[in-house]
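Researcher: Here's a chain I'd like modeled. Treat it as a single chain, no partners, no ligands.
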Amino acid sequence: MISLIEKAPYIPYPLALYEQLEREHTLLFESAEIESKAHTKSLLMAKACLKLICNHNIVTITSLTPNGGAFLQKLSAFFKTPIQDNALTLTYTKNKKTQDEFLKLFEPSPFDALRGLFKSVKTKPKHPFTLLSAGVFSFEMLNFFEDLPHLKAQDNTVHDFIFYVAQNLIIIDHKEKSAEILGACFDERFKTEIAKELQDLKELAKNIKSNFVPKKAKQSTEVSVNCDDSEFEKKVLSLQEEIKKGEIFQAVLSRSFYMECLEGLSAYYHLKLTNPSPYMFYIKDSDFILFGASPESALKYNALTNTAEIYPIAGTRLRGKDKQGNIDYDLDSKMEFDLQHDY
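Model: Modeled as a single isolated chain. Structure tokens:
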């Protein structure tokens, strides 16, 4: 792998820059301080070279550029799997015999496809972000590690995960007032081409003189919901009864609201303006646009120290029962205690 790095003038308007780059397989990740709301970093994936899609236990890796095709060849050798129709297909079998929660994490899983991206590259990159894979997981990804009841897909049929490998990446540090443009090259043949892409991005960034101007779209303001008020109320009352019986300690219900959104980038602009958060994202895939902001951090990982911090949201566990299926009140109390003190 060849790392290409280009210093660029500070870019104070990342959204205006991303507007010029927005197309399929691009994304914008941003962060801001919780207290001051001051923006800290912006990360723009201007061009992706690989796309990874996971459906249940199958991961498909597809090249999006000739440079990505060169990386796909390396992955084919690493996984000892042939390329067919410009894609690599990896299948992982869930081991249902392993009961230990910690050991489950070491079993083969679709996450090995993501780990393989980095293990297959022998050359150490010059910059920690030169080889970057970014994307999204669905909640259903948990099914590979837990035995959960199967729910029929209704309004959400998105893949279990979608990840990209960046060919061109722009990193903006708002605190240091600096910017870098990075390129990942997987074959010497594409070095000149990618170097030119970085120069073009640098010139484009120089010409961004003003902030993003949101667009107004003529769209319907009608809101629909997948569960009406009366049905939702029934579910709430039903779960309240389960809590009274002691079957569960708590429950978090949800339902989906829908409204037409013709200008996703403008909607993200207003979200960013009204709710600057440590975790802001805008992802444009070939099938959808996903954007959001959250003040919460579920997990923080420090690559320099190889340490992770977990901030779990409220959860629940199965009732404590003996071998005959009867409630074991000592075990039950222990599980409740663990839930109350598991921060």
